Amino acid sequence: EAQVTQNPRYLITVTGKKLTVTCSQNMNHEYMSWYRQDPGLGLRQIYYSMNVEVTDKGDVPEGYKVSRKEKRNFPLILESPSPNQTSLYFCASSSLGTDTQYFGPGTRLTVL
Amino acid sequence: QKEVEQNSGPLSVPEGAIASLNCTYSDRGSQSFFWYRQYSGKSPELIMSIYSNGDKEDGRFTAQLNKASQYVSLLIRDSQPSDSATYLCAVNQRSARQLTFGSGTQLTVLP
User: Of A41, A89, B15, B69, whose CB neighbour count within 10 A is largest?
Assistant: First the structure.
């Protein structure tokens, strides 16, 4: 089954404790992206990647890091999480030949 | 000014009616426009894309684009309770893959 998976789905952590949210797709998509979704603000892009070893900032990259060492994986790293990073995070992927972005199921992160 | 604006709603329509959802955008250079549907607690899914002025129909859904007025709309005909969801407008404002989303309009279709 073609899908985008994210782990964990739910995470409660404390300020300053480094964490990684994994994203993996099995569709051989070149493009992958991370979004955060907050009430009243919609989806905002954090980082995106056009292919392996190619990443770029989105609209709200501060406090986040990403890497793209393999085509299928695009982890989101929070080196020192803060409460304002409490949010619902979505990973998405698409083929460069289409406009359809496939979204993962989401990761709900709470930083205390 | 938000780059992509939608009425947050909630919008309620009776079953069988036409639901009209609107979206305006600020970047005149935008090329691609999308409507996503997001059920509560779920991830967004693409339902319509439109690239040129005019109407595009797909089943009960019609997307309308007017680049001169910088608005895009979504009409849902014969609305069903299963259409109850949040509808997100997304616009390609910079690169081919960078999407800017509106905050979404919550639609409720009443049986």
Answer: A89
